[in-house]
C-alpha cells in the first residue's frame, strides 16, 4: 500500500523528479530540445512570457535544461537551480552576479587551482576585496574585518587536499556578520552531501565530475533560493557570462544522474579500501581520505557526508620525484586532471604548476598544496585491479 506523505527516496527522485511523460508525447526519456528560440501566437503572448521571465530565448531557458535544473534543486534540497556551461562558468557567473565593487569575499586558503586564480588574480581587479582564511578552524573567521563581506566561499572536500571543512560551524559564524555561504560540493555530489541541510545558502557543482560521471562533457550548476537563482540567471547568465549549457549536455547529465547514488557507493567503497592499503604502505608518508578512521576530520566528515566519496590525497616518503616515478609506473589508472569518472584518474598538481610557470611566471600552487601531493580520483574498476596497479607502481624503485 502506498504510504501517504512519504517523500520518494533519493534514487527515485534522481530518476523521475521534474519530468512527466504525458507532457512530452509519452516519451519515457526526456527529449532534447535543440532550439535557440521560441515562437509565439501573438505579440501579446510573447509579452506575457517575457514579463514572467519565461522562455523566449535559449540562453536562459530550455525545456531539457529545465528538467535538469528542477531535479538538481530537488536532490540538493534547494528552491531553484541554474545550470551553466562548466564548473568554472558556475563560479564566475555566481561571483559576477552577486558581488560589486567595494564588496568583500572570504575564501578558504586552499581552492581548486582555477578558482584560486580567479579569487587571487581576477576578482581583485574589479575592486572586490578577497580575504583568504584557513577555515579548517572556523574560529579564524572571528579574526577578520567583516566590513563589506557578502560571501564566504569554500569547497568541502577541498580540491586537491581532500580536507574536510565544517559547513555548520562556518555557516553559523558567517551568518553572524551577515554573509552568505557558498559551498562547492563537487567532490561529494548530492548523493553524499547536501550543504543546504547544514546551513549553507548556495551550493555549486562542476557537473563535469561525479554528477555526470562519465567524463564526456563539461557543465556547472548553482542551487539556492529562487530569488538568488533568478538573479544569477537574469544578470550573470543573461548578459555577463552567457555561459549556457547545451541541451545535449543537459540530457547526458540527466542520464548520469540516474545512477549517481549507485556509482557513489562503489566509488566510496573502492576509495576506503585503497586509502587503508596506502596508509599501511611503507613507501607512503601520509594519506588523507575523509572516512579514514585515523583522519582527525572523520567525525565532521561523518556528520555531513554519508560516505567518504572517492577523492584522496597522498604523499610518498621520497617526495616530489618519487611521486612522478610512481605515477609513471601505473598501467590501469590514467594520468589525467579531471575527477569523478568511471575511470580512475591520478594527477600531481606540483608538476603541472611548475610546467605552467614556464609560460606564465605568476602560476603558483594553491596554499596548502605541497610539492609531494598526489591526487587520486578512485573510479569504478574492480578493487583488486586498482590495488594491484597501485601496489606494483609503488614497488617501482
Ligand atoms: C572543486 C571544483 N570546482 C570547480 C571546478 C571547475 O569545473 P569545470 O572543470 O567543470 O569548469 C573543478 C574542476 O576540476 C573542481 O574540481
Overview in brief:
By secondary structure, the chain is an alpha/beta fold. The protein is 37% helix and 14% strand. It has two domains: 247 residues, 3-Layer(aba) Sandwich (Aspartate Aminotransferase, domain 2), CATH 3.40.640.10; 135 residues, Aspartate Aminotransferase, domain 1, CATH 3.90.1150.10.
What does this structure look like?
By secondary structure, the chain is an alpha/beta fold. The chain folds into 2 domains: 10-256, 3-Layer(aba) Sandwich (Aspartate Aminotransferase, domain 2), CATH 3.40.640; 260-394, Aspartate Aminotransferase, domain 1. The protein has 13 helices and 12 strands. The chain has helices at residues 10-16, 43-51, 63-76, 87-98, 113-122, 167-176, 226-240, 247-257, 260-279, 298-304, 319-328, 349-357, 383-394, and strands spanning 80-84, 104-108, 129-133, 149-155, 180-184, 202-206, 220-224, 284-288, 311-316, 334-335, 345-347, 374-377. The protein is globular. Bound molecules: pyridoxal-5'-phosphate (PLP). The site of pyridoxal-5'-phosphate has 14 residues, from helix 4. Pyridoxal-5'-phosphate binds at residues 86-88, 112, 115, 155, 159, 184, 186-187, 206, 208, 218, 220.
CATH architecture of the largest domain, by name, is 3-Layer(aba) Sandwich
CATH homologous superfamily designation of the largest domain = Type I PLP-dependent aspartate aminotransferase-like (Major domain)
What letter string, H or E per element, gives the SSE order? HHHEHEHEEHEEEHHHEHEHEEHEH
- In the predicted model, the low-confidence regions spanning at least 5 consecutive residues are none
| Strand-residue proportion | 5-15%
CATH-assigned fold name of the largest domain:
Aspartate Aminotransferase, domain 2
State Rg. 22 Å
Bound molecules: pyridoxal-5'-phosphate
Intertermini distance: 63 Å
Number of DSSP-assigned strands: 12
The global form is globular
